[in-house]
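hi!! sorry for the late reply, been swamped w classes. u asked for the two structures so here they r. pasted raw, havent cleaned anything up. first the sequence of the first protein and right below it the tokens
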Amino acid sequence: MQATIVLLGGDGIGPENVAEGRRVLEAVAQRFGHAFAFVEELIGGAALDAHQVPLTDATLAVCKESSAALLGAVGGPKWDTLPGHLRPEKGLLALRKGLGLWANLRPVKVHPLLTDRSPLRPERLENVDLVFVRELTGGVYFGEKKRDRTERGARAFDALTYEEYEIERVVRLAFRLAGGRRKKVTSVDKANVLESSRLWREVAERVAKDHAGTSLEHQLVDSCAMKLLTHGASFDVVVTENMFGDILTDEGAALVGSLGMMPSASLGDSKVGLYEPIHGSAPDIAGKGIANPLGTILSVAMLLRHSLGLEAEAAAVEAAVDATVRAGVLTGDLAREVPKSTVEVGAHVVKCVLSPKGD
């Protein structure tokens, strides 16, 4: 296969981790006989420094013509005082919008050798293996925003708005994913309070009728937050709106024990997906060579699976990450003995991709 992959290192530790993701992709190409071309572009604070905007039209055009994009992270205190429309995060939002990416997939799977790194007791983590499907382009983050004043002082307004088609397409994606897993969808809302959630629940019920072999349950978001910590293994595919998904997926990361282990994929109607770890730019450790690259590398596996349709290759990367964890080759956020560097962890994954049997 021939494919062009855009590398968006971004800010902080992003470029370091994306560099390891590239090396893993090169190893996959070598082992399986593919031809991957790489294009490096700027986003976030790096783009602001170079071009005065967090995402240029040229970079967006390159991404649209590519097979997929791998992103590191954006943001940092250097740009915190900029106006809202010039914040590094606006580059990420513009990229999602420009590529038509409306669903964010975040798998949460607890490695059996890392259960002691989680704040929860090991018995709470047994068999936790779920996928969040978060709606990405609607809800309160994209609704009308306004600030004014009343006789009592300042007043702010954020509208939570959803159209039926926005809900339907993300719920259908959740059911498709569940069909290849344990055939259970949990739809999370706040239907006892919010009208948008009542519409969400109605649409989910209708979509469920087209998937007779997959069960649907509804959970209120506050109840779901508690159940994730007490009965995480009961979930298979969890689908929810934008803000609820943003919060719950970070809670899910706590189950794993480190944000550095968490990948994600942002998908839409085309195969040009955006893949990134869920951690931030971590400017306090940038350039020190100690960032955990495994979330980025697992995002590479999702890229291979969802944008390139290379299931065996994706599984090979996941197996290599598993072998790396089992070998104890870990950065300081997870290591119990001598921590390894970002490059050392990436190199071990590459070795396992190229020599899956250890030869």
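now the second protein. again sequence first, tokens right under
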Amino acid sequence: MVLTTPLLAYLAKLGPVDVVCTPAASALLANHPAVREIIRYDKRGDDRGASGFLRLASSLRSRQYQTAYMAQGSVRSGALAVMAGIADRVGFATSAGRAFYTTRIPPVDNVHHAARLLSLGTRNPLADAPRETLRPRLYPSSAETSAVEGVLGVAARDARLIALAPGSVWATKRWPFYAELARELSALGRVVVVGTDADRSLATAIVAATGDTAIDATGKLSLLASAELIGRSTLLVSNDSAPLHLASAMNTPTIAIFGPTVPEFGFGPLAERARVLGKTDLACRPCDRHGPQRCPLGHWRCMREITPDSVVMLARELLP
């Protein structure tokens, strides 16, 4: 959803833009100036099953939309656009729901995914686009500001924050040296750990490594509030995971650590000041589009051989 926002900004120049998305994704688009209306599709809750699908399709049909841009690409969303009577349906030629599309755009390899999504609006594959055009945008409100201040507390509100995002749903994407890194970076600013409840144990180790000076924000903030916190930070160090894209949206200087995956898949940082760390001398890398739960070869060198010192060196370059 974050990487879809450049497409939304492009389409908003052509006319009003409404977005159908899940409740979780909808929260990210709150306050977004490119979006006229967010239509929530709670497919696992109130809108589950065939009755929920048909009810939403009927509601969309009554709005008489002319065009649907199928950024998500599923069979369900494609079928929904057909049932809603939307005649012009634009999506990727490789998407699962491509049989429902009237215009199929071939996605380009080795470009950022934001460019691929933007190509749905231009209706032409994009081999390249200006970085500023591709950079996503999010718009936290005063509610998110208040939530962040509550987590930081009075003592840290004016500190130079250095955000760390140690988590990932894919085990081999989790660089193992965040605690050691935090110990070094705590001399340069106040370390704050961002992530979900699932990252709490990682955050606990990081806080302990800094002598309890780091702030654990894992599981305490919404995605949009996490974007606000990252936006306040002078630097984010992240794996190939969601916080990386939040930093791009808030234009926070970023160090992105890539292990089993590579930025060429289309999910690298887009902040104006960003660096990517990855082992370029391994024949086994990349080994997976997402990152397996275990290293196929058992050595996990792609992450283990990226040292904390190398990250600290880049941090010193990027910190003001």
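hope this helps!! also noticed smth abt the second:
The chain has two domains: 2-134, 142-318.
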